[in-house]
Design a protein that fits this description.
The complex is a heterodimer of chains A (797) and B (320). Chain A starts with 29 loop residues before the first helix and ends with a helix. A seven-stranded mixed sheet of chain A has the order 3-5-1-12-9-10-11, sandwiched between helices. A six-stranded mixed sheet of chain A has the order 7-15-14-13-8-29. Helix content of chain A is 27%, strand content 24%. Chain B has three domains: 82 residues, Uridine Diphospho-n-acetylenolpyruvylglucosamine Reductase, domain 2 (2-Layer Sandwich); 114 residues, Uridine Diphospho-n-acetylenolpyruvylglucosamine Reductase, domain 3; 109 residues, CO dehydrogenase flavoprotein, C-terminal domain (Enolase-like, domain 1, 2-Layer Sandwich), CATH 3.30.390.50. In chain B, 37% of the residues lie in helices and 24% in strands. Chain B has 14 helices and 14 strands. In chain B, the strands form four sheets. A five-stranded antiparallel sheet of chain B has the order 4-5-10-6-7. Chain B has a four-stranded antiparallel sheet with strand order 11-12-13-14, sandwiched between helices. Chain B has a three-stranded parallel sheet with strand order 1-3-2, covered by helices on one side. The chains are: A alpha+beta (797), B alpha+beta (320). Chains A and B meet through strand 1, helix 4, strand 6, helix 8 and helix 19 of A and helix 1, helix 2 and helix 14 of B.
Chain lengths: 797, 320
């Protein structure tokens, strides 16, 4: 065996002989979950535990004039009934504003509605009983005297003077507005050869996690400690929020996230029903469980998207983009979500649009308004599907106006791979991107010429067939500039603690969390590589504020980029610590030694000197054999954050190939391709799974999913039969390839991969639909692209 | 049975909304069924006795693919569930002279796999894979599907198309209702509350008969936006007795009798498009469609034309 060349030998730590980086290794938790041995929140049963059910507002907007719960209180098994007024003194209100989002305003929000309910599904009364069924029985006997108020639903008229103001104290229904200007847009448009314009509409979506939101709050009145088992993705953030609003020191609130059945950004917010659960557990001094059912998930989980964007693009005779401008309007429900706010998605739209292209003149305006629908906040690929669909839709229009093939248009306009670092027209710092390399790889992977020939042949047979592309940028690894700087107690930094155990295994405790995407697997791979042990000998512990180093959790594609780098650095320190001790024990210089597959070896020649198990036993149990001046430190902690910039960007390109049934308007996806650059790929299978899952959520958004409200603000698609998520039969083969441009901000070089699929798929599919419809002089730019919308565009109905 | 959640899609959604809007004290969103008593019946007489005793407060539990969802959504709150799954008298698929008799408790999966059905009732055989998903077909029953009469359900349309008879039993005895007279409207049938769908008697299909079954759904396995069960007799090139039964378009299966009559006698030679055009003209006059959450009435009317065209095209291509 050849001894490893460490950093000093010219190879990076990622190239160590026992490296797990870039290898598909099985997820350590997969077998357990498949065997049904997972512990989701609803699996937790504590002694004396009670169950919560909520009476939720049947109205989109209604004054609460009285609540009669006398009969409910005397029902079998009922322990308590709590109204919004009952909880005011036990749970303080909150406001979803951040100081760096200038002008953002929101009304104070309480755990339960107090004076009025502002959307259908807002929690109004909480009933605690010895079972969920008994709590639901009691709710049927509560009489709430609702007086309905006029509803504000249409975001396009929310700011009209004639429209009622939802929260009169705010003055109007405007949540936030911002304009981004770069260069001179007017001059660009006046110099243009072609100007293209279009309006795009995006429906409301929600995340539809397999495991709904839920928690068990357990308050010990003797020690005054609160333990919350939470289906969430940011335990430390929730620790701070629970502590603040139920008035406990943060250190006396423990948040534990065991197995999580998907999150997608849904589970990183402050929900009134969850706050009420914690407050009631504190009042009663007993464990209280609340698990959202599917209808509650639809009406009380955050929604997202729901944008209307009008855009114009100016190009010269050669198809070079001269200028780009857009107006984005979005409605976010009656409050700004706490603590991340409901302004971020619109901000992403205006900050990211066109960022893949090399041009200077840009103007974009975001207008965010209140309405009486469910609250909106950050769901997977925040803003990306909108920014990408609009920009790529405009790119295809501009290509057509110039007479260019869509790929040729992109070749002429995508930022050159050697142009970095660079700032986008919208002001976003960009580095280490690879649009052209990805495009070239896409052409090869999909065999573009062959697909085009196939399209021609199919069209000759009367088929409506199209190809669509979407180049995109993707935000990952958010820095403290994202939330913390605006006053939110959301950590952008994560710590990893690595411990060498007596038997030579390594235990990792880390702030990033596992929600089913495989975070624990990649952290184990990095730890095994950095220390030099077999992956079977690594244990990863996540999701417990009492035991994890402080951190932000997993959202915004930060698990690998931030958690991974912290693990790598802690692993390097632990390896040096181990070698320091081994050098003393073996009476040789630590720099002549390395660790390989669980044993200390000679760096030259690779001969095994002592196993980590022997060294561990010596250090832990026979410490007397060590020199007196040697104190072994077999625990190492390192933290990591992205510095000096708001995020680490990634990029890629997607392509879609599809058929449209001319008679039914149905879209059949024939094939989907993705080339993605997430920097260093740690586990190819997990990255590909992330991208495929993301593409499927993107397919849902562009073809199927829609939170539908009627004219009274009733949510009318709140079941899995009515809210259409794509299923296996609707999915095409999704072929994936990678370009690896490591980020220069970290040694690991990994960037995010969680949002690329969702961010780019709607654009690629919409462009393919419009390519297919182009010979028929039809276009669809409203998502979801339903059969009926296609047939209307074709003039069939 | 696809009816599992259709209460929320159509009638159910109306009901939920009604309760939301008009009974504001009913603001909860339930997931657990209200309390009920449960009896696993061991004989039909026991079922009849219990029904006589409890009347409308008792519900019959067969495959449970609609009832359980309705209970968990608290759209229904019976005092008693009478589980008939143990009643062998209601099970099985048998030949009876020129008919096939299907017991009300026969599961969809049994119809799907039945050689008798494949041989004598090819329309039903063709329809079965379209019913929801395998897990639902494993539990759902033909009796439940027919008794509930979801407007998008496949089997009600098939039994109307095949001119079947529905055998109803109660403590007062039994009676038979023609399928074409059974379905009155949205979840409204000729069945009295104390009656069970004991069996469906379907005439064996002559070998000369042609069949078409197709439905258009948002996703595979969804409730149909529009569906068509059609049969026809073709003698040489000439169509006769064209039977078109649409589902998913309005409150109940629609037998488009005038359209069928108008097309009977037409020759399937020459310009098929012309025949389709003539059929469409009658169909447009005859059909009345209602919107659902995902398709407007106009869309449904259009899809009915598409399905009719596909049926006639298939018949023309397959003529002997």
């Amino acid at each position: 065996m050849t001894a490893p060349d460490n950093n000093e030998g010219g190879l990076s730590v990622l190239d160590r002989p026992n490296s797990y980086i870039g290898r598909t290794v099985p997820r350590p938790n997969a077998k357990r979950l498949i065997a049904g041995r997972g512990t989701f929140v609803d699996d937790i049963k504590l002694p004396r535990m009670l169950h919560l059910a909520f009476l939720r507002s049947p109205y989109a907007h209604a004054k609460i004039e009285g609540i009669d719960s006398d009969e409910a209180k005397s029902m079998p098994g009922v322990i308590g009934v709590f109204t919004g007024k009952d909880l005011i003194d036990h749970c303080t209100s909150w406001q979803g504003v951040l100081t760096h989002l200038a002008g953002l305003k929101s009304a104070p929000q309480s755990a339960l509605a107090v004076e009025k309910a502002s959307w259908q599904g807002e929690a109004v009364v909480a009933v605690v009983a010895t079972s969920r069924a008994l709590a639901e029985d009691a709710i049927e006997h509560i009489i709430v005297d609702f007086k309905d108020l006029p509803v504000v639903l249409d975001m396009e008229t929310a700011l009209d003077p004639a429209t009622p103001v939802i929260h009169p104290e705010l003055g109007d229904n405007l949540t936030w507005t911002r304009e981004v200007v770069g260069g001179d847009v007017e001059a660009a448009f006046s110099n243009a050869t072609h100007i293209v314009e279009e309006t795009f509409r995006f429906s409301r979506h929600t995340g539809v996690t397999l495991e709904p939101r839920g928690l068990v709050a357990d308050f010990d009145p003797v020690e005054r400690k609160m333990t919350v088992y939470h289906s969430g993705q940011a335990p430390h953030m929730m620790q701070a929020i629970f502590a603040k609003h139920v008035d406990l020191p943060e250190a006396d609130v423990r948040v534990i996230c065991k197995d999580i059945g998907g999150s997608f950004g849904i589970k990183v917010h402050t929900y009134g029903d969850e706050m009420a659960t914690v407050a009631i557990a504190k009042i009663l001094g007993r464990p209280v469980k609340f698990i959202a059912d599917r209808v509650e998930s639809f009406t009380a989980d955050i929604h997202s998207r729901d944008h209307k964007v009008t855009a114009r693009m100016a190009v010269d005779a050669e198809g070079k983009i001269l200028g780009y401008e857009l107006d984005d309007l979005t409605g976010v429900g009656p409050y700004s979500m706490y603590p991340r706010t409901s302004a971020i998605e619109a901000n992403q739209v205006i900050s990211l649009s066109g960022g893949q292209y090399d041009f200077e003149n840009y103007r974009a305006k975001a207008t965010v308004v209140y309405q009486n629908k469910a609250m909106m906040c950050q769901y997977r690929a925040v803003g990306h599907p909108i920014a990408t669909a609009v920009s790529e839709g405009m790119a295809d229009l501009a290509a057509a106006a110039t007479g260019l093939d869509p790929l040729e248009f992109r070749r002429r306009n995508l930022v050159a791979d050697d142009a970095y670092p660079k700032t986008s027209a919208a002001g976003a710092p960009m580095d280490d991107l690879s649009h052209h390399a990805c495009l070239d790889k896409m052409v090869t992977m999909m065999d573009y010429d062959a697909v085009r020939a196939d399209r021609t042949a199919a069209r000759a047979q009367g088929k409506i067939r199209g190809i669509g592309f979407a180049s995109f940028i993707e935000v990952g690894s958010p820095s403290p500039l994202f939330y913390g700087t605006g006053g939110a107690r959301i950590s952008a930094q994560d710590g990893a603690t690595l411990r060498l155990e007596p038997q030579g295994t390594v235990t990792v405790s880390i702030g990033v969390t596992e929600q089913g995407q495989g975070t624990e697997a990649i952290i184990a791979q990095i730890a095994a590589t950095a220390v030099g042990v077999a992956i079977e000998n690594v244990r990863v512990k996540t999701g417990d504020t009492d035991n994890s180093p402080y951190g932000g959790g997993t959202w915004g594609s930060r698990g690998a980029g931030i958690g991974g780098e912290a693990t790598l650095q802690a692993g390097k320190v632990l390896r040096q610590n181990i070698l320091h001790v081994a050098g003393a024990v073996l009476q040789t210089g630590p720099d002549t030694l390395d660790i390989l597959d669980g044993a200390v070896v000679d760096k030259q020649g690779g001969a095994e000197r002592i196993t980590l198990a022997d060294l561990g036993a010596q250090v832990h149990f026979r410490t007397g054999e060590l020199p007196n001046d040697l104190q072994p430190e077999f625990v190492a902690t390192q933290h990591y954050r992205v510095k000096g910039q708001p995020f680490v960007l990634t990029n890629g390109i997607q392509a879609s190939y599809l058929d449209i049934d001319p008679e039914t308007g149905g879209v059949t996806l024939l094939k989907h391709w993705v080339v993605e650059d997430c920097g260093t790929v740690i586990n190819p299978q997990l990255v590909d799974e992330q991208i495929r899952g993301g593409v499927v959520q993107g397919i849902g958004g562009v073809l199927f999913e829609e939170c539908l409200y009627d004219e009274d603000g009733n949510f009318i698609s709140a079941t899995m039969a009515d809210y259409l998520v794509p299923m296996a039969a609707e999915m095409p083969d999704i072929e994936i390839a990678h370009v690896e441009t490591p980020t220069s901000t970290s040694e690991l070089g990994a960037k995010g991969a969680g949002e690329a699929g969702t961010g780019g798929a709607p654009a690629a599919i919409m462009n393919a639909v419009n390519d297919a419809l182009a010979p028929h002089k039809a276009r669809v730019t409203t998502h979801p692209i339903t059969p009926e919308r296609v047939l209307r565009a074709l003039g069939v109905i | 049975m696809p009816s599992m959640v259709s209460w929320r899609l159509r009638g159910g959604a109306q009901r939920v909304r009604y309760r939301y809007v008009h009974q504001p004290n009913w603001g909860k969103i339930p997931v657990k069924a209200p309390p009920f008593a449960y009896v696993r019946a061991t004989s039909l007489d026991q079922v009849f006795d219990l029904k006589a005793q409890h009347g409308d407060d008792a519900r019959i539990l067969a495959g449970g693919q609609s009832l359980m969802a309705m209970l968990n959504l608290r759209l229904d709150a019976p005092e008693l569930l009478i589980d008939i799954n143990g009643l062998d008298a209601l099970k099985g698929i048998d030949e009876d002279g020129d008919a096939v008799v299907i017991g009300g408790l026969t599961r969809h999966v049994e119809l799907e796999r039945s050689a008798l059905v494949a041989t004598h009732l090819p329309l039903i055989a063709e329809a079965m894979p379209n019913i929801a998903h395998p897990a639902i077909r494993n539990r759902g029953t033909i009796g439940g599907s027919i008794a509930l009469a979801d407007p998008a359900a496949e089997l009600p349309a098939c039994v109307v198309a095949l001119d079947a008879e529905i055998k109803l039993v109660s403590g007062a005895g039994e009676r038979t209702v023609k399928a074409r007279e059974f379905f009155h409207g949205l979840y409204d049938t000729a069945r009295n509350d104390d009656e069970l769908v004991a069996a469906v008697r379907v005439p064996k299909s002559p070998v000369s008969r042609r069949y078409f079954f197709s439905e258009i759904t948002p996703r595979r396995g969804d409730f149909a936006s529009a569906g068509l069960a059609a049969t026809v007799e073709i003698d040489g090139d000439t169509m006769s007795d064209l039977t078109l039964v649409f589902f998913g378009l309005a409150g109940r299966p629609i037998l488009a009798a005038r359209t069928g009559d108008a097309a009977s006698g037409a020759a399937l030679t020459g310009d098929i498009d012309q025949i389709i055009g003539q059929v469409h003209a009658v169909l447009d006059e005859e059909l009345e469609t209602q919107a659902d959450l995902h398709s407007s009435a106009k869309m449904k009317s259009h899809l009915a034309r598409v399905l009719t065209k596909r049926a006639l095209t298939q018949f023309a291509a397959g003529r002997s």
